[in-house]
Structures are given as structure tokens and as C-alpha cells.
Specification:
Oligomer: single chain
CATH architecture: Distorted Sandwich
Largest sheet: 9 strands, antiparallel
Subunit structure: Monomer.
GO biological process, one term: galactose catabolic process via UDP-galactose, Leloir pathway
Number of helices: 2
GO molecular function, one term: carbohydrate binding
Keywords: Calcium
CATH topology: Beta-galactosidase, Chain A, domain 5
CATH class: Mainly Beta
Protein name: Aldose 1-epimerase
Distance between the termini: 25 Å
Strand content: over 45%
Number of domains: 1
Structural class: mainly beta
Order of helices and strands: EEEEEHEEEEEEEEEEEEEEEEEEEEEHEE
Shape: globular
């Protein structure tokens, strides 16, 4: 059987490795640190690309404030002053962003996840992790949040999230994934990006939405001398849309496919860090500050659940 799952140490952290021994495709997950994917390696022709940029040491990873590869739940991005109003009640979250202005990126970052399932089959292997949210400060709702990571024989990595309302009242829910992608040792200035959108979110000084504007950049566009730190409304004629990061020099394209439609990933953040060594491509189920605007926000009734899927593959 080509697939295997095994444990290894990363400093004081314990990792799970899912690997296809035939291709060396693999991903590495740290359940105790927010269930993050620390490494993802995918084969294109004869080259194995390590496509995720994460901090290089256990200490740097534990202290990371850039949220590299983190799972963002039950909200993603910023909530100004940590305050929101839901079904006629006011709530206040801790202001945990640098600068102490906003609540940012949810409540499960760096929290220990439970390992629920490990499956190895001929054509794929997967692991499923979970975290139970209950009566957290500023979020007095009860949800079972789980994420399934899967690698198949074709070299497709799949992230599927699920959130079930275990409480007695409706709960506001938003999910995002925060990976930084790279392609070999090239600078981002050598890559092109293809963003499936014709509408961009306008931000104020605090990166809070003020409206939307047409996005008219011809795609794909060369990233040379371009800086993105934007949220986009995703458009597609199908039930999914693909953002592409393209290296013509290496003849490889990284594809990030997000399911779209009702309750799915209808927004996307793209960010080019100042170091120009990677690009963040972050599918979101709702707009920034959706806990206040309601735009894209999932309201999950007791006993109900929402789910969505993101896939990463090379062509």
C-alpha cells in the first residue's frame, strides 16, 4: 500500500505525517498547535515542490503572529474593536491583533485539537481533527468544529471543514484558511497570479470593508512590482473557482480550488508579504467583518451544520 501515516517529533511538538511513498507527496499536521498543516509537498513531473511557507523552528512556529497556515474559526480576518451585534445582542471579543485595535482570525489558533480519525486506503489517506467550542469569551455558542485533511493518489490535497451547532441557539459562523504559498526558491516577482474575481472589497484605514469596487486587472497578471492585501468576491459559472500561482520559469502552476455557492467559500484574500518570497491565498466563507455586516455570514441553527472544501494541486 502506497500511503502511510506516522508520527514524528518537531522539537517538543508531535506531528502526524501523511505520505504517498510512491510519489513522496505528503503533508505534515500538528494537532496540538491549532491543527495546522506545517508542510505540504507535491510532485510535478520529476520535481517535488514544498509549497507552504511556515516558520522554520518549533519556537518560531509557536510564537508566529502571521497565522501561517492556521485555521480561522469561528471568524476570520478582523472585527473592529472586537465588537459585534448578533440577533439583537452585543458581544465583545478580546482585541488580539498587533496594535490592540481588533479581534482577528478566530478562537482556535494554536489550541490543541483532538485526533478523531486516521484512514489509509489504496487511493488516498486522511486524518480528521476536531475542536469543541463552548462558552468562550465573546462567543457564548457551542460548536463542534472539525477539519479533514486528505491526500489522494493524483496528488490532490483536500481540506474539508465542518461545523455543527451543538447548542440551543443560532450561532454565527465564518471559516478561513491562511496558507502562504511558494514555488521553489523564486521570488514572487517572477510569478503570475490568476484571481477568479471581477469585484474587490474596498477597505478603510483599519482594513475594514467600506464597499466594493470593480476589479479590472487582466488575468493572469505578473506579480512584479505589484502588492496585494485585498479581499475579493469570487465569481464562477460552476460550483468551484480556482486561484492560480504560476511559475513559467519552472513550468509549474499551483492551483487553489475553493467550493463556492450557498454557505461556501465566496470570498478570497490575497496578500503579498514585503519579503516577496511567498503569496498568501486565503479562501473565506464570508467577507471581512461579516459578524457585523452579515455579508456571507453563516447562521447555523441548533443541530445543523455547515461545511466546505478547499483543494491544492499542481499542474
Amino acid at each position: 500500500m502506497a500511503f502511510e501515516i506516522f508520527e514524528q517529533q518537531f522539537g517538543d511538538l508531535k506531528e502526524l505525517v501523511v505520505q504517498d511513498s510512491a510519489t513522496k507527496n505528503r503533508f505534515v499536521v500538528i494537532p496540538e498547535l491549532g491543527g495546522i498543516v506545517r508542510q505540504l509537498s507535491l510532485l510535478k513531473d520529476e520535481t517535488l515542490f514544498s509549497v507552504l511557507k511556515t516558520p522554520a523552528t518549533p519556537h518560531l512556529l509557536t510564537e508566529d503572529s502571521r497565522s501561517a497556515s492556521e485555521l480561522l474559526f469561528p471568524f476570520a480576518s478582523r472585527i473592529p474593536d472586537g465588537k459585534y451585534r448578533f440577533l439583537g445582542k452585543d458581544y465583545e471579543l478580546d482585541k488580539n491583533e498587533d496594535g490592540n485595535l481588533n479581534a482577528i482570525h478566530g478562537l482556535v489558533r494554536k489550541k490543541p485539537f483532538e485526533i478523531e480519525e486516521q484512514i489509509i486506503e489504496d487511493q488516498y489517506a486522511l486524518i480528521r481533527l476536531s475542536f469543541h467550542l463552548k462558552e468562550l469569551k465573546g462567543y457564548p455558542f457551542e460548536l463542534q468544529f472539525s477539519v479533514t485533511y486528505k491526500l489522494d493518489a493524483a496528488g490532490t490535497f483536500t481540506l474539508k471543514y465542518e461545523a455543527e451547532n451543538k447548542g440551543t441557539s443560532p450561532a454565527p459562523v465564518m471559516f478561513g484558511w491562511h496558507p502562504y504559498f511558494l514555488l521553489g526558491n523564486e521570488s514572487a516577482d517572477a510569478w503570475k497570479i490568476n484571481i477568479p474575481s471581477d469585484e474587490i472589497v474596498a477597505f478603510d484605514y483599519n482594513s475594514i470593508p467600506t464597499g466594493k469596487e470593480p476589479f479590472t486587472v487582466d488575468m493572469p497578471t505578473l506579480l512584479y512590482k505589484k502588492a496585494f492585501d485585498n479581499c475579493f468576491v469570487i465569481r464562477s459559472q460552476n460550483d468551484s473557482a480556482v486561484t492560480q500561482l504560476i511559475s513559467e520559469n519552472q513550468d509549474v502552476t499551483l492551483n487553489v480550488r475553493q467550493g463556492i455557492g450557498a454557505d461556501k467559500f465566496n470570498f478570497l484574500v490575497v496578500y503579498t508579504p514585503p519579503a516577496r518570497d511567498c503569496v498568501a491565498i486565503e479562501p473565506l466563507t464570508a467577507n471581512v467583518n461579516a459578524f457585523n455586516s452579515g455579508e456571507g455570514l453563516n447562521i447555523v441553527a441548533p443541530g445543523n451544520q455547515v461545511e466546505g472544501t478547499i483543494q491544492v494541486f499542481l499542474t
